[in-house]
Design brief:
It holds the Pfam family PDDEXK_9. This protein is α/β, with parallel strands linked by helices and about 525 residues long. It has a five-stranded parallel β-sheet with strand order 2-3-4-1-5. Helix 4 runs parallel beside helix 7, helix 5 packs parallel to helix 7 and helix 16 packs antiparallel against helix 17. The longest helix is centred in the N-terminal third of the chain and has 18 residues. The termini are far apart.
Length: about 525
């Protein structure tokens, strides 16, 4: 896979198994990840946990490991691992995939785990009825031991999307997520108890919850989610796009591809969202929110509503290593959850003076930035998405420097906020509310926005950029309405503190905008713009 291909290979869209991909008569594209797989599997025993967002290739990774341990040598011809693996050794493989259904109650969790045991028993010629111990965890352990006795080989265990039952129930108001976690803890406890029968165990998921039990004890799982060696084990690197996709990207603006779909950082080479890239190419290189549209997590809206987060905080967050990697159901951390789910990424690692690391987080790319901010806007304002369809007029106005059109779009957006949204709280009294709504409104349209920009004189409320202009904006709530040619408090503050100075050498035109909002009107009370001469 190191050399450019002269002909296009078929895109493996929707294919979840390595065997189907490699044995098909169709020449499907496969990006060779077996060097990282070999690094994990070359020792005589190993327990690994990998957290990655949905649709990032975790299932394909598990499938590749499965046929590797089953000794299907012909599927690996031409790949890195082919001449390094001992093909004379085959191992019984237990594959458990919890991603297949939506978990609506505790019974569905138990049924799916029981079905997984039944499928593995059938695969290996064991009788599920012969597992005499009570409880899903004990039966799992009993099956592992039975496989060891049958084959006289240690067992390989591959668990895909271990936390799907918890993800599906996070947004519930009851304690269903906690009950689901208890069931999973009991089931996975069999892994620790069966250590002497296990050759290799690999587990994937989106989140890592502390207190589950499988991440502690004698066979402590090695969390490789931020291990540089495995940073690109899921996802596509720039080098892979350049060298493995043939002429698929001929004539495509790669800077735009990077802006839309790249940016995921696991402390190694940055990676593209693989689902986005494959669908993007299949749709004739048309940019769209493919990953986001494939399924939005239901817990996000409720987490936004419960958390006291201003939207622009999500573009410059700092978390400790412990906060980033794990949390408990009783202490859900929105930024950590957003990182693990793929809506934030690491932009900087900070080595602390007394050991350990902290991480700065931001959205990874344009797709996530736009869709996440639009979701946040809907959560903040309770405005239905179909009522925001005219929001694009705001960006079109800015690109034409039509400030009258921009003002009209902002007024229309605030006018669409239901009155009850204000009655239920006092958020309309504070500048932070209007700043959050404005940031989500504009960033959700793909416009480059920054808030709380700091200079020597203070902090600028908001800066927006178009190809030809830079807009320096200050917000005020319940400020006196200017008369005559007065600038008003907001514009006066911009001039007095010279918020525009950092941009004087940019080359683009600079526009200063003051916005006064009224608690009574729940909308703009006054809008004034000046182009800096």
């Amino acid at each position: 896979m190191d050399n450019p291909m002269s002909q296009r290979q078929a895109l493996p869209i929707g294919i979840q198994t390595f065997e189907s991909l490699r044995s098909s008569k169709d020449d499907f594209l496969y990006i060779d990840k077996t060097a990282q797989i070999y690094e994990m599997t070359k020792l005589s025993v190993g327990y690994y946990f990998l957290s990655r967002p949905r649709r990032f290739g975790k299932s394909m990774l598990c499938s590749t490991m499965q046929v590797l341990f089953e000794g299907k040598q012909e599927l690996f011809e031409g790949l890195y691992i082919h001449d390094k693996w001992d093909w004379s050794e085959q191992y019984p493989v237990v594959r458990i995939d919890l991603s297949g259904i939506n978990y609506e109650n505790l019974e569905s969790v138990k049924v799916q785990l029981e079905n997984s045991l039944l499928k593995n028993c059938l695969k290996h010629g064991l009788s599920y009825e012969d597992l005499i111990l009570k409880g899903l965890g004990p039966k799992f352990g009993e099956m592992i031991e039975a496989l060891y006795q049958k084959y006289n080989k240690k067992v390989v265990i591959l668990i895909d999307e271990y936390d799907k039952p918890i993800q599906d129930t996070l947004s519930n108001d009851d304690d269903l997520a906690s009950k689901s976690l208890d069931v999973l803890r009991g089931f996975y406890s069999a892994i620790k108890a069966s250590d002497q029968y296990i050759r290799f165990c690999f587990m994937t998921g989106i989140t890592k919850f502390t207190g589950v039990g499988l991440f502690s004890g004698a066979n402590n799982f090695n969390d490789i989610s931020l291990d540089k060696r495995y940073a690109s084990v899921c996802g596509f690197t720039q080098n892979e796009l350049d060298n493995c996709f043939g002429d698929y990207f001929d004539g495509v603006n790669m800077e735009e591809v990077q802006a839309w779909y790249n940016g995921y950082n696991y402390l190694g080479d940055r990676v593209y969202n693989p689902f986005d890239i494959l669908i993007f190419l299949d749709k004739g290189a048309k940019f769209d929110n493919y990953w986001w549209d494939s399924g939005q997590p239901s817990f996000l809206t409720k987490m936004f509503e419960k958390g006291a987060y201003e939207t622009y905080d999500l573009e410059n967050l700092e978390l400790s290593s412990q906060e980033l990697k794990q949390f408990t159901l009783s202490n859900l951390n929105l930024p950590s959850l957003l990182w693990q789910a793929g809506y934030l990424t690491i932009t900087e690692e900070i080595q602390e003076p007394f050991g350990g690391s902290s991480y700065v987080l931001a959205t990874p790319n344009r797709e996530v930035r736009m869709t996440l901010n639009m979701l946040f806007l809907i959560s903040l304002t309770s405005v239905e998405s179909n009522r925001l369809l005219k929001r694009n007029e705001a960006v079109r106005s800015l690109f034409k420097n039509d400030l009258g059109g921009f003002e009209a779009s902002v007024r229309a957006m605030f006018a669409a906020i239901p009155f009850n949204n204000y009655v239920q709280n006092n958020i309309q009294k504070y500048e932070g509310f209007y700043a959050s709504v404005m940031f989500s409104f504009m960033a959700g349209l793909g416009l480059k926005c920054r808030t709380e920009e700091t200079n020597s004189a203070g902090r600028i409320d908001m800066v927006m950029e178009s190809p030809t202009h830079i807009y320096v904006i200050e917000f005020k709530v319940n400020a006196p309405k200017p008369e005559g040619d007065e600038r008003g408090e907001a514009l006066d503050q911009i001039h007095m503190k010279k918020y525009y100075e950092p941009y004087l050498n940019d080359g683009r035109n600079i526009v200063l905008i003051g916005m006064h909002f009224s608690e009574e009107k729940k909308n703009l009370d006054w809008f004034k713009a000046e182009e800096l001469s």
